[in-house]
Amino acid sequence: MIRKFIFTVLFFLPVALFAQDLKFGYVDMNQLFTSMPETEVASSRLDTLTKRYEGELLSMQEEYRKKSTEFVAQRDTILESIRVRRMAEIQDLQERMQEFYQFSERDLQTQRTQLLTPINEKLQRAVKAVGEENGFVYIFDTSANAGMVYWSMDKCTDVTNLVRSKLNLK
After folding, report:
1. Confidence (pLDDT) at 151
2. Handedness of CA 125, 141, 40, 108 (dihedral sign)
3. Based on the structure, what is the number of domains in the chain?
């Protein structure tokens, strides 16, 4: 019995003493990410690319609508061979629209990843640097609610401004 007591004291006393010096911080990563100028530039590029793809798709849809309308209006008066060829053209255009849509979605995702990943990595490095420079053991992301059900904000430090300074943001 005395051994268990001594073991418990020797084991938990250093842990309890160590726990008193732990520093916890929190930051809203999403808010910082959206306030970074690089994010605005990336979003602008993605918007421009999206609009280009949408414009091309609208053009293809208009061509499809026009050919379909003409075909429906003339299908009873044209030769069978011409009707078959026009149906094939319309079907081909429909397939090209689908392929273009799939390509544009993949390309937009690729571009989004290429543009936003370096920005996210820069933000992660800034948070890590703030943590190391200021002796934080944990910095929680309040925007993601990463599984944290409760924490006492008054026992944590808001490091948003420290990270903002590290990123040279206003």
Report:
1. 55
2. positive
3. 1
